[in-house]
Amino acid sequence: MVWEGFFFGALTTPIGFALNPMKYLTGLAAAAERAGTTIHNYSPVLRSEAAGKGIKLVCNDGHVLAEQVIVATNGYSSEDFPDWLGGRYMPVQCNVLMTRPLSDSEIDQQGWSSQQMSFDVPLVS
């Protein structure tokens, strides 16, 4: 098959895998709750402060004391992270596109029949 278009190269990494972010999140949350963790949805952290060997996260309606904290945000994260976090995180852009299940005929027409993930980068001139 000959591919035509604005592509200039290709790379295959067959040991990679696909990750559905929502399924991953809900799986992590369920596992954490089974382990006895309480999840506080819709509780923005206003500030954090050292508290013994952990961190105190202050919210509008109270606070949480934690030994460890995971900072997990969406693509549009706040710009007011604490200074001590500087240089310890990196924003990453991710776009996930999904379609309805394709028919065998549609899969044949588009030429991609692998379960391997793919992405492309626009050719900039």
Structural commentary:
By secondary structure, the protein is α+β, with helices and mostly antiparallel strands. The protein has a domain at 42-110. The protein is 17% helix and 13% strand. The chain is built from 2 helices and 3 strands, in the order αβββα. It has a 3-stranded antiparallel β-sheet with strand order 1-2-3, with no helix packed on it. It is elongated and about 60 Å long. The two termini are 26 Å apart. The mean pLDDT is 78.
State which percent range the strand residues make up: 5-15%
Rg, Å, rounded:
21 Å
Number of DSSP helical runs: 2
Shape: elongated
Helix content: 10-25%
Structural class: alpha+beta
Oligomer: single chain
Q: Tell me the series of helices and strands, N- to C-terminal.
A: HEEEH
End-to-end separation: 26 Å
Q: Largest sheet, if any? A: 3 strands, antiparallel
Rounded average pLDDT: 78
Q: Major sheet: order of its strands?
A: 1-2-3
Q: How many strand elements?
A: 3
Low-pLDDT segments:
none
Short description:
This protein has 125 residues and is of the alpha+beta class. 17% of the residues lie in helices and 13% in strands.
What's the topology here?
Layout: H1 21-34, E1 47-51, E2 54-59, E3 62-66, H2 104-110
Antiparallel strand pairs: 1-2, 2-3
Name some characteristics of this structure.
125 residues, alpha+beta, three-stranded antiparallel β-sheet, 2 helices, 3 strands, elongated
